[in-house]
Amino acid sequence: MVNLMNPPCVLLVLHDVAPPTWADYQPFVEAVDALGDVPMTWLVVPDFHKHNSLDAHPEFRRVLNQRIAKGDELALHGYFHCDEEPPPGNPRDWFMRRIYTHEGEFYSLPQHAALARLHTGIEVFERYHWPLQGFVAPAWLMSEGTRQALRQLPLRYTSDSQHLYQLPDFTPIDAPGLVWSARSAWRRGVSKLLSDRREQHWQQAPVIRLGLHPVDMRHAFSRNYWLQTLKRLLDEGRVPMTKSQWLALQRAPVGRAA
């Protein structure tokens, strides 16, 4: 249940964080830092597309260490962020895995495979002494086996595009999110129209999530949208938080929320 005594919040979430995407994000992150104390949630991929293991990039790990020290949160975002399971066997799966995305890593994993991969990701965080509370599946796609695996792990939350789910029981909490499809000019135009409409509709929402992707950072139109939207929401009085910070407020008794 949402604690109505808490101020309205904004959660800035960077998807697909990995060594090759840091160059896309760095100018934007520096612009956000210039606004003041705006914590972010970084969705970290341990071995992006099987060619970018965090173990092989100590400089990037130092960046993440600095972000944690600054107050940011790191969450586990898949492990490889690519779908190499057997070909889809029905039209729905074909659409989800070949049209909607090619990166639905956890869309079709059975429970044992999902559990093993999640354990491997958790071990990466433990190796680098990174606090870990959340897991977000690439493209927010999870098989039933993945859901069952998450119930067995010491994680606090997962999410889809419009909710956060408290683990292990998957208690849903409304957390509407803006996200763009920025691969082409027409997609960016449509995304802007939809996002403006949704933001207007969510003016009274207790929280709004801004879900950024590396491709958004490669185009001035989308990059500027995210920065200006963040500034506007802050000017309207929304308090910036990480996902785990905001979830902690929802669990706190009304009279004791910090």
UniProtKB/TrEMBL annotation:
GO biological process: carbohydrate metabolic process
One Pfam family in the UniProt entry: DUF2334
Residues making up the signal peptide according to the UniProt record: none
InterPro entries named in the record: DUF2334, Glyco_hydro/deAcase_b/a-brl
Xref: CDD domains: CE4_u10
Protein name: Deacetylase
